[in-house]
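In this section we turn from sequence analysis to structure. A common task in structural bioinformatics is to predict how a protein folds when a small molecule is present, because the ligand can shape the pocket around it. The inputs are simple: the amino acid sequence and a SMILES string for the ligand, here magnesium ion. Study the lines below before reading on.
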Amino acid sequence: MNFVEAVGLTKTYTPKGAEPVHALDGLDLSVPRGTITAILGPNGAGKTTAVKVLTTLIIPDSGTATIGGIDVVKRPDDIRPIIGVSGQYAAVDENLTGFENLDMVGRLYHLGAKASRARAKELIELFDLTEAMNRPVKGFSGGMRRRIDLAGALVTQPEVLFLDEPTTGLDPRSRLGMWDIIRSLVSQGTTVLLTTQYLEEADQLADDISVIDGGRVIARGTADELKASVGGQRVELNLVTPDDTAATVEVLRRYGNAEPAVSNDARTVTVSVARGPEALQLVLRDLEQRNVALYDAGMRRPTLDDVFLRLTGRTTEETDSEESKEKAR
Ligand SMILES: Nc1ncnc2c1ncn2[C@@H]1O[C@H](COP(=O)(O)OP(=O)(O)OP(=O)(O)O)[C@@H](O)[C@H]1O
Ligand SMILES: [Mg+2]
């Protein structure tokens, strides 16, 4: 049996005066012990809702979830001691220092004063926060908050760790640092379920990826399996001017084996092809005849973004902008 197992989870929110939202719509998940699973999905896909159900913060409308064979809904008090959670928004006390925040978590978990302080110190070092340990968190940068929050989730050395978008808002260097920490936790036996909007992050970290959209899993596999499911190479062209987009799409249609995809700014056009080099040569020849100016042209292997596009017909970018429009309303 998998360490974390969820079957058919549903959760519907019914905001006053608005249509009901099916945040989870029959979600299945399974995470073997000692592995990293990524839930990959755009804004509003149901990632946070899934994490909240598994960490006993909300009760699903239907479906079951177990961790280590323990029912999450029926026995939340037995679940809480074995899990750690770092939510999407850092949950820290602004007025306490980094050290005090961690010590407080230790006390809340009844570690005892001495053990609690020792663990806080250990985590401060692990997360490279020594300089900031005696500063109140309100003066911390976003990346520092993220780290102190994750450290808080590790105070009790949980068997399974839930990380909701652990690197959103981090700069590239801090992101790499966070990835290293997550990998080292797993090498020591921790099981990790993380959510992410970054295809690269899932690709880098996860043994298994569940792509979710609309509260359910729409694809599952390793990064390689998901990429293979989209098949073949891509020919990708960067145009000097979007005036040439239509002509380029027309040419790519001729040589591709699927409908060409156009980026939001209309300057990048991509198509899946059977034989990459040959297709690229033919495409370039035709574009030259039509005087289409290129910044860049090349072949590439499919990315997880292509997987998402194939599965949903939308890019993750488009989904993001739909959501921000939604929020602006
Ligand atoms: N308390 C709530 N009341 C009403 N609707 C909610 C509530 N919580 C979540 N939702 C809705 O449920 C859907 C899923 O939300 P959720 O927070 O799980 O998405 P997410 O995948 O974590 O998105 P993000 O990437 O933006 O964090 C969204 O449409 C959201 O608006
Ligand atoms: Mg979320």
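Residues 47-48, 88, 164 surround magnesium ion (ligand 2) (CB under 6 Å). As an exercise, try to locate the residues that line the magnesium ion site and compare them with your own expectations.
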